[in-house]
Amino acid sequence: MRAEPLACTWLDTRQDRTDKVVLTANHDHWNKERGPRLEKVVFHNDIPHAEALNLVCDAEGEVDIVTEVSPADAERVRSSEHARLHAIDAMRVVLGLVNRGVTDAPLDDARTRRAFNMAVDRDRMVREGFGGYAYPAAGVTPPYAGGFPGTEPYPHDPAEAKRLLAEAGWPEGRALRIATNADLEVPTNLMAEDLRDSLGIEVEVSVTPGDQMLAGQHALVEKVMPLPFDLLVFAWIDLTSDAPPAFMHGELYGETGPFRAGPPVEAFENLMGKFATEVDPDRLNELSVEIDKLVYEESLSLFLVYPQALYAVNKNVDFVGYATTFELAETEVNEKHWSRRNGG
Question: pTM of the prediction?
Answer without folding.
Answer: 0.94
